[in-house]
Design brief:
6-stranded antiparallel barrel; about 325 residues
Length: about 325
């Protein structure tokens, strides 16, 4: 059904809209003015069960969006007054937080997005009460993951690591809740302090911090006319730069690579490096999840702090690398 609809819209030559575009307000004589309704982006805390293609993908602790809403259209009523009415139906993005206890349906969805082969999935988000009974739910159809934000990793932190995920649906609807949706009660966690970074032959064992970064999947939107609804198609994916903080003790090889790669201009494909970011278990031995990094090049390196004799902390360096590809392997589900 979704595939047929997308094919029809393409062959019909309907206009596309970039995902980030805001509806254009027209104020021409005798024509309606479109006033875009503001979409709320604040997280709501609680318990929410994510279901993907009929399979439970785990409980998420925070959620926002997903509700259908309408634009407000102003028009000239003919008696000198401006009137308002609801315009076409729109559907808000669903933003949720994921953790290591999520199931394979979500990890494979993220992995497909990062690999450049985004998948459409349908499903629901169930709102759970204290007894884990679903009071209501938001169903969604033909959705893409359009953003994944990986958290800041900091060796001195004790925070739980969460991924912030934006799901862009074609259509959503509000439904009554199911009596007892299937729930995996054992929820694994990982900490933002438990990580390991590898970057080519550069020393990285004393990298103390990796800044948060977001991968974005672009999409084009096809309107279905005044009856509401839309169809979406993936476009290009955007990989961010990687910013890390490391000890000055490891600075010499990093500065040597910067001099060769940037100053001397030896920066062809063969001079780029690859690497991995590994999320580790509390014993710092077992890899819970991994991001593979490809086609990286160092383009900035500078001191970011002075030494502190009272704490024994030495000087640190802030490094920034561009990244051409990222691949994601999620936590084991067994």
């Amino acid at each position: 059904m979704a595939s047929d609809r997308r094919t029809f819209l393409k062959t019909a030559g309907m206009a596309t809209a970039v995902a980030s575009a805001v509806p254009l307000a027209l104020s021409l004589p005798g024509r309606p003015t479109t006033v875009a309704a503001e979409e709320k982006r604040t997280y709501t805390g609680g318990r929410f069960l994510l279901e993907l293609n009929g399979v439970a993908a785990g409980i998420v602790p925070a959620l926002s969006g997903g509700y259908p809403y309408a634009e407000v259209i102003e028009f000239d009523s003919g008696d000198g007054l401006r009137k308002k009415r609801p315009g076409r139906t729109k559907y808000g993005n669903i933003t949720l937080r994921a953790h290591a206890g999520m199931g394979e349906p979500l990890w494979s969805w993220i992995s497909a997005m990062l690999s450049g082969k985004p998948l459409f999935k349908s499903g629901a988000v169930h709102n759970l009460d204290s007894s884990l009974t679903a009071t209501n739910m938001i169903e969604f159809e033909d959705a893409l993951i359009t953003e994944v934000t990986f958290p800041t990793l900091d060796g001195g932190s004790k925070e739980t690591a969460y991924l912030d995920i934006v799901i862009t649906p074609s259509v959503t609807s509000l439904k009554p809740g199911k009596a007892k949706p299937p729930i995996e009660k054992k929820q694994k966690q990982w900490l933002t302090s438990n990580f390991r970074l590898n970057i080519g032959s550069l020393p990285a064992s004393r990298v103390s911090k990796i800044d948060s970064f977001t991968i974005k999947q672009g999409f084009a939107e096809f309107d279905q006319g005044d009856g509401g609804g839309r169809s979406i198609e993936p476009t290009k994916i955007e990989f961010p730069n990687l910013s890390v903080t490391l000890s000055e003790l490891d600075g010499a090889p990093w500065f040597a690579y910067l001099d060769s790669f940037v100053v001397q201009g030896r920066n062809g494909t063969g001079d780029e490096v690859s690497g991995t970011i590994e999320y580790l278990s509390p014993d710092l031995k077992t890899v819970l999840a991994q991001i593979s990094l490809g086609g990286m090049g160092l383009f900035r390196l500078e001191h970011t702090s002075s030494s502190d004799a009272s704490t024994g902390k030495g000087r640190t360096l802030d490094a920034e690398l561009y990244v051409n590809t990222m691949q994601f392997s999620g936590p084991p589900t067994s």
